[in-house]
Amino acid sequence: MFIAYQVSLDAIRCLGRVVSQIAARDVALADQLRRAASSVPLNLAEGRRRRGADRTRFYRIAAGSAAEAVAALDVAIAWGHADAAALAEARAALDRVLALTWPLVK
Which domain holds residue 29? Predict the structure, then answer.
């Protein structure tokens, strides 16, 4: 089992609950959040089937996308589109993805 991949899917499940709330106020931000979050498991899965520097590149892209999704949550909170408490579970899952990908990209 690839734990980072599983946790990235958990993050998407958590985000599903709040993306529509964000979209009601900012469609572009919600779309960017969806794309960034979707990029994480897709790149983790592709990287897992690669070797060497190519594998690391996909893991770096996944980590970057996870960081982008966290930033999108921060932006949504800053604009008042969502409450920090409502996003806490998704943010925690994304933070875990970042922690799990760190050893894969160093």
Answer: 3-105
